[in-house]
Design a protein that fits this description.
Layout lengths: L1 H13 L49 E10 L5 E17 L2 E8 L2 E5 L10 E2 L2 E2 L16 E5 L2 E4 L5 H8 L27 H15 L3 E2 L3 H9 L58 E7 L27 E5 L7 H4 L5 E4 L7 E2 L3 E3 L1
Parallel strand pairs: 10-13
Antiparallel strand pairs: 1-2, 2-3, 3-8, 4-7, 5-6, 8-14, 9-14, 10-11, 11-12
Length: 360
């Protein structure tokens, strides 16, 4: 963990002016990797989606059922239970054998944010993260609060490079998109090196092409979908291991053995799903959300909508946007269900991607 903190402090020194420092002291290596590639934000205004869009589809998607297995592990990382589940989904055909699978997520209430137990006995900068009144104690994940999330569809996987290429070749809506932006090449690997603005453009093109209103998830929708009914730090249970997710497993969360640090993305769907049938919700690439960055949850919406402060479309400077889930570059800390982080809407990194949602 000392290694993680030293890297964090080094990142903070290099990244002043590009992030919200107060919310990043615990974010590990979240903004390392390839140097950010700034988009031409002075020429192209930042697109601002509405926080609670409704579907404009003229047809109801044909729902099918798929079966999957989900597992839970104990604090040693050993499997404690297996469940065979099934859920409904539909397939969006993108052409030439490329499709987008959208899983039905049922609506419900949940508590967003972390608890005192989320981080076990981890100590950062000499401060115990179990002390709830400590200023280093996950301040941006507090206060834990209840949110009601309506039902929606969410991408079964992070958007892949094959899917990105198909949509990037569709007619432009507001901005140009590179067909092959990723650092780690592979059709079934998640797309990365794409900015928040790029992800919004992808959603706009996909929406126009399909007649359905695709968008990025709100932060509340993302955490609800990640947890899938769980209250532990990870949807897998008491800990996380390199058999369950692609992250830097050289640091440990509980009593599991140290694992490998792959130093690259892996094909989507390689690890077990959560109880909603979603894959790679922990690690591989961070996932962009609609919301603007906020230092904590004071004043956050309770209806599952995105928390957007500035709806002016004429921005000439970057906006800090939410990302969730951790990545191949992250330690366990950033992969927790409750962990919050942000990046500039105009920068690209090879550890940030996204998945899409569709309102029911």
């Amino acid at each position: 963990m000392r290694r993680e903190i030293l890297k964090t402090l080094g990142w903070l020194g290099a990244g002043v002016g590009l992030s919200v420092v107060g919310g990043r002291l615990l974010q590990g290596r979240s903004n390392q990797g390839n140097l950010p590639q700034q988009t031409n934000s002075t020429l192209t205004p930042t697109p601002t989606p509405t926080s609670t869009p409704t579907s404009t589809s003229t047809s109801t998607p044909l729902l099918q059922t798929f079966n999957f297995e989900t597992i839970s592990v104990n604090s040693q990382g050993k499997i404690s239970s297996r469940r065979n589940l099934k859920t409904r989904y539909f397939t969006e055909d993108l052409g030439n054998g490329v499709s987008l699978e959208m899983v039905e997520i049922p609506g419900d209430s949940l508590k967003i944010g972390s608890t005192a137990e989320d981080l076990g006995g981890v100590v950062i900068l000499g401060r115990s993260l179990k002390t709830t009144d400590d200023k280093w104690s996950r301040g941006n994940e507090h206060p834990q609060h209840e949110v009601r999330v309506g039902s929606f569809f969410m991408g079964k996987y992070q958007v892949t490079q094959a899917q990105w290429k198909k949509v990037a070749n569709l007619p432009q809506v507001k901005r140009e998109l590179k067909a092959k932006p990723s650092n780690f090449k592979g059709d079934n690997r998640p797309v990365e090196n794409i900015s928040w603005n790029d992800a919004v453009e992808f959603c706009s093109r996909l929406s126009k092409h399909t007649g359905r209103e695709y968008r990025l998830p709100s932060e509340a929708e993302w955490e609800y979908a990640c947890r899938a009914g769980t209250t532990t730090a990870f949807h897998f249970g008491e800990t996380i291991t390199d058999d369950l997710a692609n992250y830097d497993a050289s640091d440990v969360y509980a009593n599991e053995p140290k694992g490998q640090y792959r130093k690259e993305t892996t094909p989507v769907g390689q690890f077990p799903a959560n109880a909603f049938g979603l894959y790679d919700m922990h690690g591989n690439v961070w996932e962009w959300c609609l919301d603007d960055w906020h230092e904590d949850y004071e004043g956050a919406p309770t209806d599952g909508s995105a928390w957007i402060n500035n709806k002016n479309d004429n921005h000439f400077f970057h906006i800090m946007k939410m990302r969730r889930g951790g990545s191949w570059l992250s330690t366990f800390y950033n992969c927790r269900s409750a962990c919050r982080s942000s990046s500039s809407s105009v920068f690209r990194y090879d550890h940030i991607g996204f998945r899409v949602v569709l309102q029911k």
